[in-house]
């Protein structure tokens, strides 16, 4: 998955958040058609048994800086599924103790060949919004007393239905099932074996996709098309 999210001020996204029984505007959500990696994004997590929305830097690993924290030189806006159970990896502890969801309307993908982009696509849920499965981590600078929250999106193997859009991976899109979402956010569940089935490529909802010229201008260059959910 490439580094951009669509989190518009949309009733579908708001409904998703309210369905998680959080106080949506306790922390003003961040809305933008184009949120790129390293920028702030709104996440939902559970902290000391309380469901809450917080602002996180979309880059899991942070380094101390003179002004607080900055994204690490190590790329970490995504966390690969096959690293989640590797001890000492960046995602190992968060997968067990600080899972989160990132409510979005859609996301964007860029296909690269030999390090060069060859096409860009945007995708949104046909109905409602999407819950991206993610990880978060808290940071504290003992020298300055400042704190920060960071996050990443879990990525899965490529999906056959998306191979012409992005051939290397897809984001973890959580099925919109309250029981599953509650378990994902439950900080008391520290054995992630129950989530193994989620780490296989699957489209739980119908997606509308279209090719664009580039993310900054977002001009349609081909007709929109539908990608059906997996049964």
Structure description:
Its EC number is 3.4.-.-. InterPro entries: SRAP (IPR003738), SRAP-like (IPR036590). Belongs to the SOS response-associated peptidase family. The chain is mainly beta and 231 residues long. The protein has one domain: Alpha-Beta Complex (hypothetical protein yedk fold). It is built from three helices and 16 strands. The protein has helices spanning 11-19, 92-97, 178-185, and strands at residues 4-7, 32-36, 40-47, 50-58, 62-65, 68-71, 78-80, 99-104, 106-113, 116-125, 130-140, 147-156, 170-171, 173-174, 207-212, 225-227. The strands form three sheets. Strands 3, 4, 7, 8, 11, 12, 13 and 14 form an eight-stranded mixed β-sheet that branches. Strands 2-1-9-10-15-16 form a six-stranded antiparallel β-sheet, with no helix packed on it. Strands 5-6 form a two-stranded antiparallel ribbon. Strand 5 (62-65) and strand 6 (68-71) form a beta hairpin. The protein is globular, with a radius of gyration of 17 Å. The chain starts with a strand and ends with a strand. The mean pLDDT is 88.
List the defining traits of the structure above.
single chain, 231 residues, mainly beta, hypothetical protein yedk fold, eight-stranded mixed beta sheet, six-stranded antiparallel beta sheet, 3 helices
Describe, in short, the structure shown:
The chain is mostly beta strands and 231 residues long. Helix content is 10%, strand content 41%. The strands form 3 sheets. Strands 3, 4, 7, 8, 11, 12, 13 and 14 form an 8-stranded mixed β-sheet that branches. Strands 2-1-9-10-15-16 form a 6-stranded antiparallel β-sheet, with no helix packed on it. Strands 5-6 form a two-stranded antiparallel sheet.
